[in-house]
């Protein structure tokens, strides 16, 4: 198993470390500077036993792209989600990015920030600050971008992620965390029994390559409606075109309270463990991905992560925003306006999960 709070490997000549954050209530997060990834997150269940609720690997080397091309637990950038055709224009110049997801660019390209080694700026038992310089031309993106990611764990079992990015040239930005959640305490079990609430009246329909078609549709009367909590598996096999396209849920929800960090964007709960996860964010959208393409990769403890054995809750700018006219989500970063965003994962482990599910 991975050791704690020291240099455990190196990647391209840079030291790769693991750092542990511990709350006063037993919650413990292990984070690596390789991709700023959440490696493990132990949360007390309804019986008081600690459960690791994130998928990943036992060895940090298994996160390296030479072993697995994966986004487990990673901070994604320079642009999370998809860019149509890998192309966008800024100030009259067109840029071509790698096309690593069919015709599109996904998660910043094949060597996005999930495979970068961040510098450790500060590390305590409650806070970890990481920094990365993405040079001009990195994966085809313009501008030098300095990124800061700060993880903070408090005594109320809240794991907070603060993102900040500055640039010397207009570019595009979309940062998120790509943790694969399974609150059942059994990382190979399907998450179809998880109850999910999303505070969103609209979602973003996509074409056959999962690129937004340019509008938002109402969730009312569709399987995309999670405004009343329901099991993820209840409607996932419905005869609904968008679910056929994504092989399940793999869509952006337009949050009803954008920019409000004090409003719950989503709630995820497991009836088996009683663990409930509340998501707070000031991002305008959230991509929900139900592990539709997990194909049996060997993870922690030699467990095979199968189809729909995890769900991702990716707080974000909307997919392909630079190619659309969405004023609330431009995906643009300029020298005079830093990108700043916060997401909080708040864990509860009492009977509130059962009441929520009802």
Give the % helix: under 10%
The secondary-structure class comes to mainly beta
How many domains comprise the coordinates? 1
**Can you count the beta strands?**
29
Largest sheet: 9 strands, antiparallel
Report the average pLDDT across residues: 94
Oligomer: single chain
- How much strand content do the residues show? 35-45%
| Outline | globular
CATH level 1 class label: Mainly Beta
Please provide a written account of the structure.
The chain is mainly beta. It has one domain: Beta-galactosidase, Chain A, domain 5 (Distorted Sandwich), CATH 2.70.98.10. Helices cover 3% and strands 38% of the residues. The chain contains two helices and 29 strands. It has helices spanning 241-246, 352-357; strands at residues 7-11, 14-22, 28-32, 37-44, 50-52, 75-76, 82-83, 87-90, 93-96, 105-106, 119-123, 127-134, 145-153, 158-167, 171-172, 176-177, 195-198, 200-204, 217-218, 230-231, 250-255, 264-269, 276-281, 285-289, 297-298, 304-305, 312-316, 332-333, 339-348. A nine-stranded antiparallel sheet has the order 11-12-13-14-29-23-22-17-20. A hairpin with a 2-residue loop joins strand 1 and strand 2 (14-22). It starts with 6 loop residues before the first strand and ends with a helix. The model has no long low-confidence stretch (mean pLDDT 94).
List keywords for this structure.
mainly beta; five-stranded antiparallel beta sheet; single chain; 358 residues; globular; nine-stranded antiparallel beta sheet; Beta-galactosidase, Chain A, domain 5; 38% strand; 2 helices
């Amino acid at each position: 198993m991975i050791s704690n709070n020291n240099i455990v490997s190196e990647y391209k000549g840079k030291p790769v470390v693991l750092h542990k954050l511990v709350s006063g209530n037993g919650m413990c997060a292990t984070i690596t500077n390789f991709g700023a990834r959440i490696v493990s997150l132990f949360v007390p269940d309804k019986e008081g036993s600690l459960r690791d609720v994130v998928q990943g690997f036992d060895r940090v080397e298994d996160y390296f792209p030479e072993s697995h091309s994966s986004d487990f637990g990673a901070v994604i950038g320079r642009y999370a989600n998809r860019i149509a055709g890998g192309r966008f224009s800024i100030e009259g110049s067109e840029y071509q990015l790698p096309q690593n997801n069919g015709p599109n660019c996904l998660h910043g390209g094949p060597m996005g920030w999930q495979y970068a080694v961040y510098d450790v700026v500060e590390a305590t038992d409650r806070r970890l600050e990481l920094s990365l310089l993405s040079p001009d031309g990195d994966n085809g993106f313009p501008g030098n971008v300095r990124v800061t990611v700060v993880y903070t764990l408090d005594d109320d079992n809240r794991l907070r992620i603060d993102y900040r990015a500055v640039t010397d040239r207009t570019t595009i930005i979309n940062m998120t965390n790509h943790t694969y959640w399974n609150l059942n305490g059994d990382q190979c079990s399907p998450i179809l029994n998880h109850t999910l609430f999303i505070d969103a009246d609209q979602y973003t329909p996509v074409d056959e390559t999962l690129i937004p078609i340019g509008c938002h549709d109402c969730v009312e009367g569709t399987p995309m409606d999670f405004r009343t909590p329901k099991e993820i598996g209840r409607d996932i096999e419905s005869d609904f075109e968008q679910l056929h396209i994504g092989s399940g849920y793999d869509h952006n929800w337009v949050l009803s309270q954008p920019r409000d960090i004090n409003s719950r964007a989503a709630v995820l709960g497991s009836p088996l463990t009683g663990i409930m996860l509340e998501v707070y964010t000031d991002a305008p959208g959230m991509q929900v991905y139900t592990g539709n393409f997990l194909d049996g990769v060997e993870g922690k403890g030699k467990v095979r992560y199968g189809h729909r054995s995890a769900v991702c809750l990716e707080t974000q700018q909307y997919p392909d925003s630079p190619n659309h006219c969405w004023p609330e989500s431009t995906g643009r970063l300029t020298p005079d306006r830093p990108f700043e965003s916060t997401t909080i994962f708040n864990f509860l482990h009492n009977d509130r999960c059962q009441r929520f599910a009802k």
